[in-house]
Amino acid sequence: MTDQTMTIRQMCDSFDVTPRTLRFYEAKELLFPIREGTKRLFTRRDRARLKLILRGKRFGFSLEEIRQLLDLYETDDQQEVQLARTYEVAERHLKEMQEQRAALDEAIRELEAQMNWGAERLNQLRARAKAA
Amino acid sequence: MTDQTMTIRQMCDSFDVTPRTLRFYEAKELLFPIREGTKRLFTRRDRARLKLILRGKRFGFSLEEIRQLLDLYETDDQQEVQLARTYEVAERHLKEMQEQRAALDEAIRELEAQMNWGAERLNQLRARAKAA
DNA sequence: AGCAAAGGTGACGCGAACGTAAATATGACG
DNA sequence: CGTCATATTTACGTTCGCGTCACCTTTGCT
Hints:
The structure is a homodimer of 132-residue chains. Chain A folds into two domains: 58 residues, Multidrug-efflux Transporter Regulator, Chain: A, Domain 2 (Orthogonal Bundle); 55 residues. Chain A has five helices and two strands, in the order ααββααα. Chain A has a two-stranded antiparallel sheet. In chain A, helix 3 crosses helix 4. Chain A is elongated, with a radius of gyration of 23 Å. At the A-B interface, helix 5 of A face helix 5 of B. Chain A binds a DNA duplex (30 and 30 nucleotides) through helix 2.
């Protein structure tokens, strides 16, 4: 690593993924490590992308969906049409995430309520066990 | 349906799933429809469970994880040990969901920021196009 | 009796996202 | 120089969550 690039092993250790995964992501055009001879060298850009990939996965997006969204974070030299299209994709994505958050909030509230119920029943059971 | 049970078709229409899915969930012991002769009759309990199954799926839980969690919502005639164990599972689950929400919030904020960036660039591009 | 609709049971298939094994190459080190 | 560690390519295998197909049974009309 020339201070800016990392080997596959360093990447794996940093992000807790396997080499297979990184090669797989490259094959799917999610990452673009440069080649020094036969080996891969992952750049700062690859690391940024990988971080977003892993996050996207945690929220249930497919690799293909993620691939499309990654362009959003590469707004360097885009032309108007491309940028506008990307913007729309992002809007839909944002809306999805907001809906997801709302649903998640509800689920959390319900689970908390259910747990309070369970806690009460536990107390009752234990009180009875003591009384006996 | 005797007012309390539903046929497979009614279930499919209500929850927007296929028969295959319901049979699959039964095979995986997520649902327990009663049998009238050869046919399945889904109870109120099955409907409650299915609702939770579908929600769990939206949050990225596997069917197996969901199966274990479903017991939490069947706090009818549980014994102390079982109930306590279930409670712990629920706690971990709740923690996971809360972490998920936090991460989601951050992702949303970042995406919003990125979109503002894109919006500005779009305006610049359009301003320049007008000036030319 | 005839027959179409609805339901059922295997069993095989499929895309996503990697795991894993085999064979080969590259580079560092004693 | 050998060899040990690390990487690479190729390719087949695996798990999950159903889809799909072929082939019966049951039920309700007409």
